[in-house]
Each structure stands twice: as structure tokens, then as C-alpha cells.
Write a structure and sequence with these properties.
The protein has 7 helices and 10 strands. By secondary structure, it is of the alpha/beta class. About 40% of the residues are buried. Keywords: ATP-binding, Nucleotide-binding, Transport.
């Protein structure tokens, strides 16, 4: 088994903007070790969200190669990509992306339902994930009964309930105050200590420094 869970080699991604073409990722290459906590840092429009979409198997590059845990992602079909997203990767977003009519428990349970996990096993898995983020006592609350920080904790619990080895976090503290941001980063550091690989997208240098490695992105190019 390779030390590197993510290997990106000379990846390019271009979007059409009317008559013009915009190269959002320009011959990007990077290797990320198993168990690393890496921050991808850059301003709005630098290409960082596109980069995360590629490594999260939400989008495919126009050229170059992406190996995830040794598998060439470019050779996989839609069903195989969907299985990777469901089992291998947990996603955390700036706006939490919780379903407003579902309780914290039900929001966290959704990925397990998609995986076909039987109800008898789901309950303990959901409670275990909520316990890790300190929200087991709020399991019956719907999102508008929770603070922003609590909603992000629910979102993290949802991301880890399937026990993925990789967590991708897109501006996970962008909608939070500094105190709550620190609490969320502490949770992410704890999850990293359990052995999970974390790739965090951020525009904030201070937030990025909470990771063990920072990679800057500017005009679609990566700089260490």
C-alpha cells in the first residue's frame, strides 16, 4: 500500500465562459500522504474549489492523472465514482447543507440509508458520530434549533458516520465566528489524530496554519 492516498499529476481543468476558455487548474501536481492534514489556501477564484471537486470525485479533469488510493479515477465509471464518494470520502461544506426538516439524528443517518445499512446498525453508528462532536444530547433538534457551530458539528458527524478515510472540508469555518471556528478545528484535529486524511480548502491564512501542511493556490497553480 502506497504512503500516498492522493496523487495528482499534471491535472488541467478548463471551463468555457462564453466564447473564451478559462483554465481553472493549470498542470497541477501534488501528493498527499495517508493521515496528513493539508490546507489548500487561496483567494476566491484561485481554483481551490475546483481542485477539491476533482479530488472528491465530483468533477473530472480534462487532462492529467488522479490516483486515489492507487486507483486511477479517470478510468472509473459513474457508479464506481459514486461508491467512492459514499464510502471513502466525507464532505464538509461552509453552509452545512443540512436538510431543514430533519433532526440532527436523521441528517447524520442519511449516508447510512444510501449505503443500505440496516436500521438496527444505523442507530449506534449515528449516536457514535454525534458523540464524537459533542452533540448526542441535541440529536432530536432540527437545524434551526441549533447554532451555526452546532450545525457544522452535525455536518461533521454526517461526514464521518460512514467512517471514511478521507475528509474534504470546503471553507468549514467560513460561516462561523472565531471562537466557534477554533472549536471546529479542534474537532478536525482530533479526527486527524484518529488517522483520517484531511484536505481543507480555505482563504484564511490563520485557519490554514492549524493544519500540518499548507499548499497555496493562485491562478490555478499550486505552490508549497
Amino acid at each position: 500500500m502506497s504512503d500516498y492516498v492522493i496523487k495528482v499529476k499534471e491535472v488541467c481543468k478548463t471551463y468555457k465562459m462564453g466564447e473564451e476558455e478559462l483554465r481553472v487548474l493549470d498542470n497541477v501536481s501534488v501528493n498527499i500522504k495517508r493521515g496528513e492534514f493539508v490546507a489548500i489556501v487561496g483567494p476566491s477564484g484561485s481554483g481551490k474549489s475546483t481542485f477539491m471537486n476533482v479530488i472528491g470525485c465530483l468533477d473530472t479533469p480534462d487532462s492529467g492523472e488522479y490516483l486515489l488510493d492507487g486507483r486511477n479515477v479517470g478510468s472509473l465509471n459513474d457508479d464506481q465514482l459514486s461508491e467512492i464518494r459514499n464510502k471513502k470520502i466525507g464532505f464538509i461544506f461552509q453552509q452545512f447543507n443540512l436538510l431543514g426538516k430533519l433532526s440532527a439524528f436523521e441528517n447524520v443517518e442519511l449516508p447510512l440509508i444510501y449505503q443500505g445499512i440496516p436500521s438496527s446498525a444505523r442507530t449506534e453508528m449515528v449516536l457514535g458520530a454525534l458523540r464524537k462532536v459533542g452533540l448526542e444530547s441535541r440529536k432530536d433538534h432540527i437545524p434551526n434549533q441549533l447554532s451555526g457551530g452546532q450545525q457544522q458539528r452535525v455536518a461533521i458527524a454526517r461526514a464521518i458516520v460512514t467512517d471514511p478515510q478521507i475528509l474534504l472540508a470546503d471553507e468549514p469555518t467560513g460561516a462561523l465566528d472565531s471562537k466557534t471556528s477554533k472549536e471546529i478545528l479542534n474537532i478536525m484535529n482530533d479526527l486527524n489524530k484518529e488517522g483520517r486524511t484531511i484536505v481543507m480548502i480555505t482563504h484564511d491564512e490563520g485557519i490554514a496554519k492549524q493544519s500540518e501542511r499548507q499548499i497555496h493556490i493562485r491562478d490555478g497553480k499550486l505552490y508549497e
